[in-house]
Amino acid sequence: METCEESTTIGKVITCKAAVAWEPKGEFVVQDVQVEPPHAMEVRIKVTHSSLCRSDVFFWANESLAHTFPRIFGHEAAGIVESVGEGITDLRPGDHVLPIFTGECRECKYCASPKTNLCSKFGVASLETGMKSDGKSRFSVQGKPISRFLGSTFSEYTVVEYAYVVKINPAAPLDKVCLLGCGVTAGIGAVRKIAQMEAGATVAVFGLGTVGLAVVKEAKLQGASRIIGVDNKASKADEGKRFGITDFLNPDTLNKPVDEEIRELTEGGVDFAFECVGNPNVMATAFESCQDGWGTTIVIGVAGRATVTIPTRYLLSGRCMKGTLYGGYKPKTDVPELVEQYLRKDLDVEEFITHNLPFTRINEAFKLLLAGDSLRTVLHFDDIIR
Asked: N or C, fewer C-beta in 10 Å, the chain?
């Protein structure tokens, strides 16, 4: 068995460090894990940077999924291809890549359609335990299988199915463009591709985390005339204004429901409401905040299998609600161009990075996220001590 320090690891089991969650809501244990070589149409990636996303928190805290623990979380990351499995011809060791949580086969009717970024063969990567090909994990600790979660990037090495790996320009700094693997892209795409917002539109953004602020920033760039930020954390007011909100509402301090306040401020409701929290009650409130006739609610937040209740009379009056996964972007088709936009300085992700921490301080990073004291914390894997 080879270790990460060996010069040749291709085709061999690698022992490296990973942050293992042994139970829901439990602290991460940074320990040795074994990572198998990639099977056919799989890629083993040396992860260089991984940022923390609220989706990791949602599933880490979900006690109904206790059967999937122990588990390696993480999905918003960047790295370098270490080896590829049989059948892969357009990726090779040394390529710089982003693992993306949703796939693209480029063959099914969804991939052929410009109307969606869904894929019938490779939808969202495994949320349960193993790979789509055989249902098994490529991780273990002393022979005990460790469940995957999407890309499982809280590990020095991970194995990902080919459809979820995007090759990018090696000139792009991996500690920055790792953010394009989830939240920032979801927010940008929700405005650009899903809303297709016209200049002068009025907007309400529910939840001013990374996704919500990405919406705010892009809405401002698209010429929105009014951007109302909604969050129950008072400190988000100044942060939201830095990104472009014109008004800030804290539902906990209002004398009336926030949707009523929004309708009064906008004389009938906003043109677009973006839900970036993942709460069905907030989704309904966002819908109530919209203008009759054309008001559109766009749901970005992850809420599992929760149900949203909305009055049908508003549907009949012309309001609508849309959902979006990854901002509507097709990973292999669209993401390389987003990286190029970053390199041309047409797209900025750096202002979303509030903290940089060594990978071994992952528990500290999670505490910052849970407290709402960070946007994106980028974990660096170069601190591992042998």
From this structure: C
